[in-house]
Amino acid sequence: MSKEQHLLKSYNLNGLELPNRVVMAPMTRSRANNPENKPTEGLHDIYYTQRASAGLIITEGSQVSKEAVGYVNTPGIYSKEQVEGWKMVNNKVHEANGRIFIQLWHVGRMSHPDFHNGELPMSASAINPEAQSFTPEGFKDTVTPKEMTGEDIKRTIQDFKNAAKNAMEAGFDGIEIHSSNGYLFHQFFNGTSNKRKDEYGGSIENRAKILFETIDAIKEVMPEQKIGLRLNPSLNGIFGMTMDEETIPTFDYIIKKLNDYDLAYLHLSEPFNDVSDVPHAVTEIAKRYRPMYNGTLMINAGFDQESGNIVIEEGNADLVAFGKPYISNPDLVERFAENIPLSGWDTDTFYTPGEKGYIDYEAKARKQEA
Ligand SMILES: Cc1cc2nc3c(=O)[nH]c(=O)nc-3n(C[C@H](O)[C@H](O)[C@H](O)COP(=O)(O)O)c2cc1C
Q1: DSSP per residue over 292-309, as a string?
Q2: Does ligand 1 lie within 6 Å of residue 323's CB atom?
Q3: What average pLDDT does the segment 179-187 reach?
């Protein structure tokens, strides 16, 4: 491969200079196993700093409130201790010349009463996703959630706004709203999980409303140029999501309306599984949405060096987010630059506490340079 790789070209992200177009995708790693669920020194700072040569790091999903949680040991961004923890991480990442956004997360019904003192998790409607929640006692079946009241929705939007404000205080370069992968916003978008009769259900516009109200609220505490968001239009059969005839028209509506904003980026996922036989699914997400969206388009899921360079070259995306390759290749950018083969990842340590499988992957490309 020639040195002229599209992935390695710089990019201006609405004012933030990225030295390359290789993005670290958001990944839950469940290392915040402390009473405050905060990022800790010697662990989170090392993990992210090791990956600072990425054009952009997007952190693991971080809950915007106590209510928003659904997985064990994930960090939050709602308490003072958590903000301090993230500040420490960000200082180190910036010292290492990195750039870092935080992913703001509310899992909605993808949770369990064990996280909420026995109370039910909340969602658009009282419909069980028939999935599993990763609780402190291991995987447990999800339950039928409580349908959110108007007050619950208002409070949740406020929680996102507070979390965004906290993110700015903690020194992040921006935020990503996790409106993807079957979590709270996605539960509102989808007609099979949203049967509401009020202004947040029924029509496509109503089902998308909570997202735009959240963006508008966040814009009051930070520049919209630093707000990104993530969507997974063809998610089907995973995380409780089932596509119907209105699913793609809903995403078409949302993505066209995002043109009214001047956001940092739109982060899209190609289908997580084979959807070629799924009714109403779109198999090529970047190709469909590139012509509909005027801003920066980031694409993810299943890319490697070659396909990542091609998707940019063909004009279907501006940035490419890499997930699993970043777990085991902290020096992914340098490996691409030097055409060094990638190391494989160990799925057994994706979510286990401690250093193993987290900060002990070798940066081979950097060692060779030294
Ligand atoms: C261990 C692990 C944790 C993940 N956690 C998150 C998360 O917190 N937020 C999110 O939006 N996606 C999450 N994902 C999905 C990734 O961001 C990405 O979409 C997925 O891994 C596909 O990209 P890849 O083929 O490059 O790995 C996670 C994936 C993995 C493997």
Answers
A1: T--S-EEEESS--HHHHH
A2: yes
A3: 98
